[in-house]
From TrEMBL, chain A:
It holds the Pfam family Str_synth. PANTHER family: ABC TRANSPORTER PERMEASE PROTEIN YPHD-RELATED-RELATED (PTHR32196). The keyword RNA-binding does not apply. Residues 482-568 form the Strictosidine synthase conserved region domain. This is Ribose transport system permease protein.
Automatic annotation (TrEMBL), chain B:
This is Strictosidine synthase. InterPro entries: 6-blade_b-propeller_TolB-like (IPR011042). It comes from the Bacteria. Gene3D superfamilies: TolB, C-terminal domain.
Length: 706, 364
């Protein structure tokens, strides 16, 4: 092995490339950019301003945050529903004036004044909401108008009452506490902010109304079609926004007690910058409370720092404006390119080296020497079937198979000419197995493991397993249950070929060469599902050995068959039985002579084998070349081989031209015949075996019944 | 600057690193005309068709056949090396390029003439010959490093070692008129308008003047062009193998390509081919996986059959295809006779006949 190849081998063993794609597929990934930005801001100003990271500085920041962030949360909720509220700055100022007027001038108690102030904010919000939500005016212009009107009202009030309000001072301790008090050293309003933020987050992410907001913001028309009261939902977001702006104004009043005419001027730009910078999308539907808080923290840090740096006046709005532009640009570009980026990096190949390919030349002494044994094989259900991945017989010799239409189809014994839809499962059935009572068990792609009783009752056995400890994508859901078999104690062992791909793109997993699959056990006694073996390379066929302790499983892309002990003294052990198949093993089943039939879905080709040792080639290929043009394992020629438990391959049967069975994904012996299935085929093949026991059935071999 | 551009391109797959292939569109819309075409004769590797007055010949491996539209092919000679190119001046003599050997003149006053000035390496890879009057001819040399049958290796090595020569048969002197060409595989003499050369690895047709300067006549072909033939109603261009995104990509992956050339049997390379799908050891692309037992005609195969009719301005006017699910792949030469056009499918081992005025453009 060359130096560069050993380097590639170790580099791909040590660096988990696939995690990048998985992280990018997470929703919380949207937070990374603002979070990184926050870190940059902190580091930058820490180096510019001595004592930037002091306790006092943080307390000060927290108190400001307790005012501005309320407004930002309100605005974020409006934006999530696809709107915008520019009037928040004016409402803030109005609330500030109202609070001082009620408490200082009129001497109202807090329990009366606070709801009154909140109600004023909510009232302004309601006007916005009615205009935008019900009359469907443009949010931007409408709230711009209310911004001006409310600001004018505040100016008039100040003109008339400023002296009276400013003359008197409240001596209420509670009012003082609201403005300057601490809880355990933390400013009171910040504690309240955290509480409100948590509640708002729960409402948005867990409640019906929160989902409605996100749905309306995501797609107004779809939300309407789904029966959501779009207009009401929008109207309420403005009420919430107005109320939150008023609460922010209230704390401001409590802290400063001033009715200056410049209160809240430009606040709408500050909070808008904060929300967008945090990652609340201007287009609606994307964002969270946490994002709004993050953005507010950034904006406050920047503006405060600029003041402390004694920047000339005008610098702060300039920087804010630039930040807003930057945030809007990032918002648009990120939204547009995130999926592109994800699709480019998701396929993540790794280094994998297959053992030497055994000879297959016709006439060679190899057990894999090609022949045309399946020439003239009989067809069952030709043209009726679409994807019989596996097939099985009940104790009355009827033949069952699945199909892409989501049915289990039954062909009636003895001639298998008439067929009927046994049940409709709704998903693509793959591996099939019968238990002792003729209950049909099926792996259904995308759905899990299901059982169908002889009375055609459908029972879901399992669609979820335990989530593995350090997985980034949620791997508890079973996406690609592939084949199964039932142990004598009733436990169902099934393979999930890959946790990274689904039924439509499973073959892409071949490009990765990583152990993305696992074997899972379902225990009917406790109705529990546990992963028993993970990190396998496309585990596919499963077949009980018959000793009640172990099973054989095929790892398709690794071209090997292994034995796994699930009970007994060797429990948990895995031993390779055949390490170097010339093709890709799919399902495997028992043969009448005690050996095992293995279906090879495709054959190894030298170029593809070589590409497995050059992961960077495959990665670039996945990024640059269209999917239909990717280099694939050769899935156009299949064969059937017979393997004994000690790993000896005794024979192979081929359909060389590939006229009827180019790809064989399943093989099953029944009463002297061999039956062939293919996930991309339109028939089941039936081949007479010359030297097989004509009375042998797998149902009898498993469960001892006739 | 160009370094920056190359780095950018190689990271983002743009510019030179782009793997795009021109679509089969317009006059090149796919059909199955070659698969429907009438079979005139079969021969394992039917290659170069020529017309000598009333007689037609074609080559297949080391054998020369005489072709009769009624009676099919009859053997007309056998050589000690595969015939790589054939030309007739219409009055008897045949010029024959032999792989690894050189040029042989059969018949006429120049029979047995030996060439001077042409190196052994160049003479070993004559891919096309064209007479320019009875005493002059042009030779296309595919590569000075590989023999004609190793064309896939030459492509995979990214060689541009081809050349075009002018030979004076009276003296046997050969003069190189152009070099550093990417596998010139077809020649056409245009009276008074210079020489047209199909440059396969650059997927284009160029015109060469006496001084070896070239002008591009047609480029961005979706397949590798081969021999050219003038006939009634236009020019016939044979294209012997398709360009595929994956192959373009492999061509831009030097490390992978070197490893492949070193370790793998040429028949199983991820490279264009004259025919494909014969062995499961050949590489397969995603779209070529059979669905319901059927290979889709649009599947990305390594071989393809394509014959294009060009007008006088070298613009494609009509095309005749054998797609992934067809068998008449690897079109290497054509010959217009009256209202018919004879075509050789080297990959399919057949000589076919189509109607020259067939204007079909897509699958019926």
């Amino acid at each position: 092995m060359s130096v560069s190849e050993s380097f590639a081998k170790w580099r791909y063993r040590l660096v988990p490339d696939h995690l990048l794609g998985e992280v990018l597929s997470k929703n919380w990934i949207d937070n990374t950019i603002p979070f990184l930005f926050l870190i940059i801001v902190v580091v930058l100003f820490q180096s510019l301003i001595p004592g930037f990271l002091s306790i006092a500085g943080f307390a000060d920041l927290a108190r400001q945050l307790g005012e501005v962030a309320f407004v930002a949360i309100g605005l974020a909720i409006v934006m999530l529903a696809g709107g915008i509220d520019l009037s928040v700055g004016s409402v803030f100022a109005l609330a500030n004036f109202a609070a001082l007027a009620f408490i200082n001038y009129l001497g109202w108690p807090l329990y009366l004044a606070i709801p009154a102030v909140a109600a004023i904010g909510a009232f302004v919000g309601l006007i916005n909401g009615l205009l935008v939500g019900y009359l469907r005016l443009r949010a931007f212009l409408t709230t711009l108008a209310t911004l001006i009107i409310v600001r004018a009202v505040v100016d008039l009030l100040i003109l008339a009452y400023a002296r009276k309000v400013a003359m008197t001072m409240s001596d209420s301790d509670a009012w003082l506490f609201l403005g300057e008090g601490d809880l355990f050293g933390v400013p009171f309003n910040f504690v309240l902010l955290v509480a409100v933020a948590i509640i708002a987050h729960l409402v948005l992410s867990r409640s019906r109304y929160g989902w409605h907001i996100l749905a309306v913001g995501g797609s107004r028309r779809s939300a309407y079609n789904a029966g959501i009261a779009v207009r009401r939902t929008i109207c309420i977001t403005y009420v919430i926004s107005g109320m939150f702006a008023a609460i922010g104004g209230l704390f401001y009043a409590a802290r400063l007690g001033s009715v200056g005419p410049d209160t809240g001027i430009g606040l709408e730009v500050t909070v808008l910058t904060a929300a967008v910078l945090g990652g609340v999308s201007l287009g609606g539907g994307r964002g969270s409370i946490f994002k709004a808080l993050l953005g507010t923290a950034i904006v406050l840090l920047v503006t405060n720092s600029l003041i402390r740096l004694n920047m000339p006046s005008g610098a702060t709005p300039l920087v804010l404006g630039l930040l807003l532009l930057l945030a809007v640009a990032v918002d648009i570009r990120w939204l547009k390119n995130r999926h592109k980026l994800l699709s480019r990096v998701y396929v993540s190949p790794t280094y994998f080296e297959l053992p030497q390919r055994p000879a297959t030349e016709a006439g060679s002494a190899s057990p894999y020497a090609v022949n045309d044994a399946f020439h003239g094989v009989e067809a069952i259900g030709l043209g009726e079937l679409d994807g019989p991945e596996d097939m099985i017989f009940d104790s009355k010799d009827n033949l069952y198979t699945g199909g892409r239409q989501g049915d289990i189809v039954r062909f009636l014994a003895p001639d298998y000419r008439t067929s009927e839809v046994f049940v409709h499962l709704g998903g693509f059935p793959l591996g099939l197995a019968f238990d002792a009572k003729d209950n049909l068990h099926a792996c259904v792609a995308g759905m899990g493991v299901y059982m169908v009783t002889p009375e055609r009752e459908i029972v879901r056995l399992s669609d979820e397993t335990n989530r593995s400890l350090f997985s980034i994508i949620d791997d508890s859901r079973i996406r690609m249950a592939d084949d199964l078999d039932i142990a004598p104690d009733g436990r169902v062992f099934f393979s999930e070929a890959t946790v990274r791909y689904g039924v439509s793109d499973w073959a892409v997993d071949a490009l990765e060469g990583r152990g993305n699959g696992r074997i899972i056990a379902y225990d009917p006694r406790t109705k529990s599902t546990r992963t028993v073996l993970s990190g396998r390379i496309f585990p596919n066929g499963i077949c009980m050995v018959g000793d009640g302790e172990s099973l054989l499983f095929a790892e398709t892309w690794a071209c090997r068959i292994s034995r796994f002990w699930f009970a007994g003294p060797k429990k948990g052990k895995v031993e390779t039985v055949v390490a170097d198949l010339p093709g890709y093993p799919d399902n495997l089943n028992r043969a009448s002579d005690g050996r095992f039939w293995v279906a090879l879905a495709g054959m190894r080709s030298p170029v593809f084998d070589m590409s497995l040792t050059v992961p960077s080639f495959r990665r670039r290929m996945a990024q640059r070349v269209a999917m239909d043009e990717w280099l694939y394992p050769n899935l156009n020629t299949g064969c059937v081989v017979k393997v004994s438990l000690d790993g000896t391959v005794t024979e192979s049967l081929w359909d060389l031209g590939g006229a009827s069975h180019p790809q064989i994904t399943s093989v099953r012996e029944h009463k002297g015949y061999l039956y062939l299935g293919g996930i991309n085929n339109n028939r089941i093949g039936r081949h007479k075996l010359a030297d097989a026991d004509p009375s042998w059935t797998s149902q009898h071999a498993y469960w001892g019944q006739p | 600057m160009s370094f920056l551009k190359r780095t950018y391109d190689s990271i983002f797959g743009a510019g030179e690193a782009a793997v795009t292939v021109p679509p089969l569109d317009g006059a090149l819309l796919p059909n199955d005309a070659l698969d429907q075409a009438e079979l005139v004769a079969t021969a394992t590797a039917a290659d170069n068709l020529v017309r000598d007055g009333e007689r037609c010949f074609f080559s297949s491996g080391a054998e020369l056949f005489r072709l009769d539209l009624m009676d099919g092919a009859t053997p007309a000679g056998r050589f000690d090396a595969p015939i790589s190119a054939l030309a007739a001046d219409g009055k008897g003599p045949l010029a024959i390029g032999l792989s690894g050997k050189g040029l042989v003149i059969r018949g006429g006053q120049h029979e047995g003439r030996r060439l001077s000035g042409l190196s052994e390496a160049d003479a070993a890879c004559i891919t096309a010959i064209a007479f320019d009057g009875p005493d002059k001819l042009f030779l296309a040399v595919g590569s000075s490093r590989n023999r004609p049958e190793d064309w896939a290796r030459d492509l995979m090595e990214r060689n541009h070692l081809g050349s075009v020569w002018q030979v004076d048969l009276a003296t046997g002197a050969a003069r190189r008129i152009a070099d550093k060409l990417g596998w010139p595989a077809g020649l056409l003499v245009r009276r008074g308008a210079g020489l047209v050369v199909s440059e396969a690895w650059r997927h284009r047709l160029i015109a060469l003047d006496d001084k070896g300067r070239h002008t591009v006549l047609l480029d961005n072909l979706p397949a590798y062009p081969s021999r050219l033939q003038a006939g009634e109603g236009g020019l016939w261009l044979s294209l012997f193998a398709p360009r595929r995104q994956l192959i373009e990509f492999v061509l831009r992956e030097p490390a992978f390509r070197r490893k492949m050339l070193k370790e793998i049997d040429p028949a199983h390379w991820m490279a264009p081919a004259l025919s494909s799908g014969k062995s499961f050891l050949e590489p397969l692309q995603g779209g070529s996986v059979k669905q319901l037992g059927v290979l889709k005609p649009w599947a990305p195969s390594r071989s393809y059959g394509l014959l294009v009719r060009l007008n006088e301005a070298f613009l494609p006017e009509a095309s005749f295809h054998s797609r992934a699910d067809g068998a008449r792949h690897g079109i290497t030469s054509s010959l217009a006779i009256g209202g018919r056009v004879l075509v050789t499918s080297k990959g399919g081992g057949a000589v076919l006949s189509i109607a020259a005025d067939d204007n079909r453009r897509e699958v019926a």
